[in-house]
Amino acid sequence: VQLVESGGGLVRSGGSLRLSCATSGDSFDDYVVGWFRQAPGKEREGVSSISHTGENTYYSDAVKGRFTVFRDNAKNLVSLQMDNLKPEDTAVYYCASFVDAAPSQYLSIIEDEYEYWGQGTQVTVSS
Predict the structure, then answer these.
(1) Nearest CA to 32 among 53, 60, 7, 47?
(2) pLDDT tens profile 91-116
């Protein structure tokens, strides 16, 4: 499974960006997808996760209320809408996935559970 992120860029504080994570080849239907970010000099952290149907979502406290994750499995696409961006959101953002199509609508923010990773996209928020 190849994941490709897009949508990063430079935005002013308070602005918005939408990141997209697309897969080529396999269908996204059975995959949990997570978004992670890594700021300079910091460890990578989990930001959001969405279950394989989109029924369950998770957000870290740092982004809750400002970011929204959603998916369109027909288009093999998962998106992260980021509103009211802050300078501390500046980081390289990665999408990642692993297979879990259980009825429990499992999701995770644990990096080790993720099998496939995109190359990352830079988000820079100026003050």
Answers:
(1) 53
(2) 999 999 999 888 889 999 999 999 99
Angle at 58 between CA 124 and CA 51, to 5 degrees: 110
Residue 19 parent element (H or E)? strand 17-24
pLDDT band at 27 (very low <50, low <70, confident <90, very high): confident
Two tokens at 18? 């939408």
Rounded CA separation 85/94 (Å) = 17
Q: Output the CA–CA distances (angstroms, integers) from residue 61 to 9, 64, 65, 87, 119, in the order listed.
A: 23, 5, 9, 16, 25
